[in-house]
């Protein structure tokens, strides 16, 4: 790992870097000259596959009290055109971070936390596809954004969403279909709002309509996030604030292959697996050795146990965590987001197959107690459905985001609610040693909260496992922790009593 002091400059081909390095050549006075405040950037590289590496850059996070943090993982491949595009993409995010960091006074209250990680969706001789997730926080609540990057290896170019269609008219037809679906969803969300008269609802729709149509108009900027499954079902994601004010949240629209495949350019049909080959059709559910009490198993009623739980994933860091757990023969519980599970299926499948327990942590990390009942149903039921599609088994435990809930959430979940009795604040303090020291303080039959979206948390785990095993604890899943006790639906549990 090397440390350098400089204004982040990933590639000499990036214009802003040229300007920063050669200010004397810069005769356009309106161009922004980089601030002189040095930012300490840490860089390292890990292997993802034989031909793809993960590059990590990090600002802050060394000091546990650091309030300004930036962490980005991005791919590096054997193809220069891909590397250049990914570097430019991360540079734009860094510039946004830097601008906010510079503007922020020393007495600012809220933190600044920018993170990017990615998932390799496809790596075939024709295409490489990445799904990139960014979480951006100006306080302790964060918002996520997805970006789909498809690279055509033969044409040596990045494919934009509109390129996937057979003609411009086909793209426009897809957009009209999308807008019809969005209109329905939007009107339904207005319907569900409390305390509005019919007139209020009509006014709200009239006032919102233009923004909805503008945010979903036919251009690639609006269609930057989409995913598909083995059967060719397509989902398009729209960010919070893209189509409506923030209280409406984010939007997503689903399409069956019958609805859109005739619009796709024949040369890109393969991208969506619209004509699946036999080997792509995985119909058998994943086989798990998920916990069933067996004679000779540790009995947490008699022996000291601790349950490690990981929230908000799966992420690009989850695979490394699974390696660590496997090496140490430890089982844990993962409270996953439906939205992330759906786009990181291989990781979720592996988590399940390796005997870890999967719990429900909502679809996209909304504070559930602020939502209408039908939205809570979407958040919980769609997550269970997505996990079941991928692993063959639906979660039977729920952990609401922020531990926040009301009676409707409990009723809709209809599952035991699993909280925690130790919070190492790993989202706040991105320092492996600090996180490890805190997690190691777990008590007998306690539940430890952590987040597998943070690299530093994953790095803390070997020390945590060693410390807890040295104290004589068995590291178990939630089901195993409570084996022999009945967990009731809608009841909260934060340790085994
Ligand atoms: Ni969470």
Which key features would you list for this structure?
13 helices, disordered N terminus, eight-stranded mixed sheet, alpha/beta, binds nickel (II) ion, 497 residues
Task: Describe the structure in your own words.
31% of the residues lie in helices and 21% in strands. The chain is of the alpha/beta class and 497 residues long. The protein is globular. The model is unreliable at 1-6, 11-37 and 274-290 (pLDDT under 50). It binds nickel (II) ion. Nickel (II) ion (NI) binds next to loops.
What is the element layout, followed by pairings?
Layout: E1 2-5, H1 15-21, E2 40-47, E3 53-59, E4 68-76, H2 80-103, E5 112-123, E6 127-137, E7 142-152, E8 157-159, H3 168-191, H4 198-215, E9 226-228, E10 234-238, E11 251-255, H5 257-260, E12 305-311, H6 318-327, E13 333-336, H7 338-343, H8 345-353, E14 357-360, H9 373-391, H10 407-413, E15 417-418, H11 432-439, E16 446-451, H12 455-470, E17 474-476, H13 478-481, E18 492-493
Parallel strand pairs: 4-5, 12-13, 12-16, 12-17, 13-14, 15-18
Antiparallel strand pairs: 1-2, 2-3, 3-4, 5-6, 6-7, 7-8, 9-10, 10-11
Helix pairs in contact: 3-4, 6-12, 9-10, 11-12
């Amino acid at each position: 790992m090397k440390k350098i002091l400089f204004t982040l400059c990933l590639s000499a081909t990036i214009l802003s870097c040229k300007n920063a390095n050669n200010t004397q050549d810069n005769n356009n006075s309106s161009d922004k000259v980089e601030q002189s405040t040095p930012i300490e950037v840490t860089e390292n590289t890990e292997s993802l596959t034989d031909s793809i590496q993960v590059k990590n850059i990090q600002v802050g996070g060394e000091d546990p009290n650091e309030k300004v943090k930036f962490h980005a993982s991005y791919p590096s491949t054997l193809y220069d055109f891909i590397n250049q595009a990914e570097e430019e993409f991360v540079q734009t995010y860094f510039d946004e971070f830097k601008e906010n960091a510079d503007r922020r006074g020393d007495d600012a209250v809220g933190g600044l936390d920018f993170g990017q990680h990615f998932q390799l969706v496809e790596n075939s001789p024709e295409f490489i596809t990445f799904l990139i997730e960014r979480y951006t926080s100006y306080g302790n609540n964060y918002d996520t954004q997805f970006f789909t990057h498809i690279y055509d290896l033969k044409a040596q170019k990045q494919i934009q969403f509109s390129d996937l269609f057979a003609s411009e008219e086909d793209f426009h037809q897809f957009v009209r279909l999308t807008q019809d679906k969005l209109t329905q969803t939007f009107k339904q969300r207005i319907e569900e709002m409390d305390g509005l008269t019919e007139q209020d609802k009509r006014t709200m729709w009239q006032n919102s309509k233009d923004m909805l149509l503008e945010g979903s108009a036919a251009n690639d900027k609006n269609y930057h996030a989409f995913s598909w499954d083995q059967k060719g079902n397509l989902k398009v994601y729209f960010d919070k604030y893209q189509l409506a004010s923030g209280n409406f949240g984010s939007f997503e629209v689903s399409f069956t292959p019958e609805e859109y495949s005739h619009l796709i350019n024949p040369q890109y049909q393969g991208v969506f697996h619209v004509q699946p080959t036999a080997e792509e059709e995985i119909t058998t559910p994943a086989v798990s050795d998920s916990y069933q009490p067996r004679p000779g198993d540790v009995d947490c009623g008699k022996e000291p146990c601790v349950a490690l739980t990981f929230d908000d994933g799966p992420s690009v860091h989850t695979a490394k965590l699974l390696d660590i757990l496997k090496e140490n023969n430890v089982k844990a519980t993962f409270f996953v987001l439906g939205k992330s599970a759906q786009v990181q299926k291989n990781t979720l499948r592996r988590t399940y197959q390796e005997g870890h327990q999967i719990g429900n942590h909502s679809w996209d990390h909304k504070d559930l107690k602020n939502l209408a009942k039908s939205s809570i149903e979407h958040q919980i039921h769609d997550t269970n459905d997505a996990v079941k599609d991928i692993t063959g088994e639906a979660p039977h435990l729920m952990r609401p985001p922020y531990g926040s809930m009301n009676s409707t959430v409990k009723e809709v979940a209809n599952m035991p609610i699993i909280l925690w009795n130790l919070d190492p604040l790993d989202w706040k303090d991105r320092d492996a040693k600090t996180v490890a020291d805190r997690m190691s303080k777990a008590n007998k039959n306690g539940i430890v909260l952590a987040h597998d979206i943070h690299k530093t948390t994953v790095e803390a785990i070997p020390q945590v496992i060693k410390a807890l095993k040295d104290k004589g604890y068995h590291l178990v899943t939630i089901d195993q922790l409570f084996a022999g006790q009945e967990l009731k639906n809608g009841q909260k549990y934060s340790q085994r009593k």
